[in-house]
Amino acid sequence: MAEAHQAVGFQFTVRPDGVDVKLSQEVIKNIYLSGVTAWKKRAIQFKNGVLAGVYPASPSSWLIVVIAMMSTLYIRIDPSLGMIDAIKENLPQRLDVIICYWHFLLLYTVLSAILFATGLWLFLIFLLRYTLKALLSYHGWIFESHGRMSTSTKVWLTLVKMFSGRRPLLYSFQASLPRLPVPSVDDTIHRYLESVRPLLDNEKFNQMEILANDFRDSKAARLQRYLVLKSWWATNYVSDWWEEYIYLRSRGPIMVNSNFYVMDLLYITPTHRQAARAGNVVHAMLQYRRKLERGEHAPLRALGTVPMCSTQMERIFNTTRIPGIETDIVQHLTDRKHLVVYHKGRFFQVWLYTGGRHLLPSELEMQFQRILNDTSEPQPGELKLAALTAGNRVPWARARIQYFTQGVNKASLDAIESAAFFLTLDDEPQGYDSAKSNSLDSYAKSLLHGKCYDRWFDKSFTLISYPNGKMGVNAEHSWADAPIVGHMWEYVLATDCFHLGYTEEGHCKGDVNKGLPFPNRLQWQLPEECQEVIEASYLSAKQIADDVDFHGYLFNEFGKGLIKKCRTSPDAFIQLALQLAQFRDQRVFCLTYESSMTRMFRDGRTETVRSCTSEAVAFVRAMEDPGNAQRLALFRKAADKHQNMYRLAMTGSGIDRHLFCLYIVSKYLGVDSPFLKQVLSEPWKLSTSQTPQQQLNLVDINKFPKYVGAGGGFGPVADDGYGVSYIIIGENLITFHISSKFSSPDTDSYRFGQHIQSAMLDIQELFKPINDKKTVELANHVQLENGKKHI
Hints:
Layout: E1 10-15, E2 18-23, H1 25-54, H2 59-74, H3 83-89, H4 95-99, H5 104-136, H6 151-163, H7 185-196, H8 202-218, H9 220-233, H10 239-248, E3 260-263, H11 274-294, E4 301-302, E5 306-307, E6 319-322, E7 329-332, E8 338-343, E9 346-351, E10 353-354, E11 357-358, H12 361-373, H13 393-403, H14 407-417, E12 422-425, H15 439-448, E13 461-465, E14 471-475, H16 482-500, E15 520-521, H17 528-546, E16 548-555, H18 560-565, H19 570-586, E17 592-597, E18 606-610, H20 614-623, H21 631-650, H22 656-669, H23 674-681, E19 686-690, E20 712-714, E21 722-729, E22 733-741, H24 749-766, H25 768-790
Parallel strand pairs: 8-12, 12-13, 17-19, 19-21
Antiparallel strand pairs: 1-2, 3-14, 3-20, 4-5, 6-7, 8-9, 9-15, 10-11, 13-14, 16-22, 17-18, 21-22
Helix pairs in contact: 2-5, 3-5, 5-6, 7-8, 9-22, 11-12, 11-16, 13-17, 19-20, 19-21, 19-24, 20-21, 22-23
């Protein structure tokens, strides 16, 4: 057994003349090094906590204020306006006796000056923070045309930079971020009615208008007061309710319906050795986690200046969604030192530290290769155990209480739920292959649901390793949104390819320590009743997985570069193409969801952009009329409208989060609102999201064009609708991930992809005369300049 080879810390033998104790120097050394590392970690965390706590000031600025205050004492100036004397008079009198010998009067004055200087320093810190918060509450800059910055915005940006300090840490700006504002009820209802106008006929719209006006005039004011009160008390009036009621209280399966996936590099596979690639990637994740725990990552900033909230990043690692009967909870632990690996139906615990340091990539490769070489069989019920996390939540919660609260089952489940993350060593190769038309489809489905029992869907994320060296991530959604996982994944891929690297044979670099203990096989005792619950969850999950119709494709006819030449937003261009594709596919318009972030506010997550506007509908109808000469003008009008809606959502003036929170308040108060019920029951038949890229700019994709990710995606939101995720890669590539359900006779993911492609090309044709004219003008200009040079 592997356990027989593990090192023993100490041994003792009872002898007639006493006890003979033998200590293992190697283990004692490891214990010592682990302790030193732990204390170093605490010291660094404390230091960085202080730096973030006093930001935008610095600890050294306290000394400057104290010295400045002390210097005034020698020139007999009292900048405290008598406060130093007041502090001196209120110091404990018993100190007179203690320091009388040392001229207590002088020391009292110095001590009082130091206390006053410290108070002044703290006051200046709060003044700087609230000044910065006031500056960050201004969002006029986001509504200005791209490339045209007003003088007032330039002045504002200069002030933000001035008050932002130097070298901020990850959480330095948290206390300076403004709170998410609560929009007025009138504005929200007006925007809501405007958003549904193109989707309803006159009769249905009039009915909705009556419901909305009745709500505004009768119940809205009372609900709004409670919501404003919450916005004053809580750091964010939306996020906690959004996490609880949208995610954690859902009793349906989270596989496909909630979890999302992220793909590996599109064209490059650094090594085809599965264990080696997993070793490098896991080591890179440990480096990322160490910087995260110390708060050493740079905060994300729009325009390189406006900070984004970093709260969601706290729960990337050591986090698990725990099932409950009525609601789940998110369990976040600290300083977890192991991960759990799944391979061919067996669970293994792998320790990530030795001697107070992370395992090296070569050591991780060896551990993973040991698991790959293990030929033992799964224990009864072990093969499909993880299917419990893929099925309905209530059976999983009840099984957890009944079968996993004691003995080896509890110990093994604790090992999984307390792990840094979960790793699956898959046994079927995946990845993009240009020679195979459906390779991206198969890859996406593998990441999204796999075999329904080979990912632990409750973990914050499951890292998936394939035999051909490809990787991927399946992420649970309640704890954070896709950009957070994307941030981590960008760091990991860049570190893997450009910093860690591989040998010529494809192995991880570095020496191999064969003295490491073997991975520990987790033990289970699963009775027949529990195995029946597992099988039922598996069958339920498999039905969902088999119904996912996925199509992914690379659109490389043109990209962001050409779209920007058309002087329009790439996102608006794609969203209008999606509206045109949706109409061509279904011959009707539908309620469309596009995700927008609200991370310019503290604890902000997302807001909905309702992309199917009246302007978009007018443009689409014009595109279906070849004789319409106003198509380009209507496109620009629809694109401007979309950009304005997106900006409103980003700055806290969206529609859906406000109405959602009003609905939650109404449920707490027992207030019945037909209007809110109607709004919250409307299906999103087209759900879209853009995957961000280059958040860290660690790789120059112009210099290394092959080192680009394929983005990620999610399952369909509606039974008869589409889910579309897209990523704009560089200047000339856009990747689309399209999902729907085979069970719906009205949808077909491949067909919808063809409609997207034709819509993109048709819209691009509108700009062809303009671009051709610019090309001719540029050619004439170049010819003229060359002629001048010749002369």
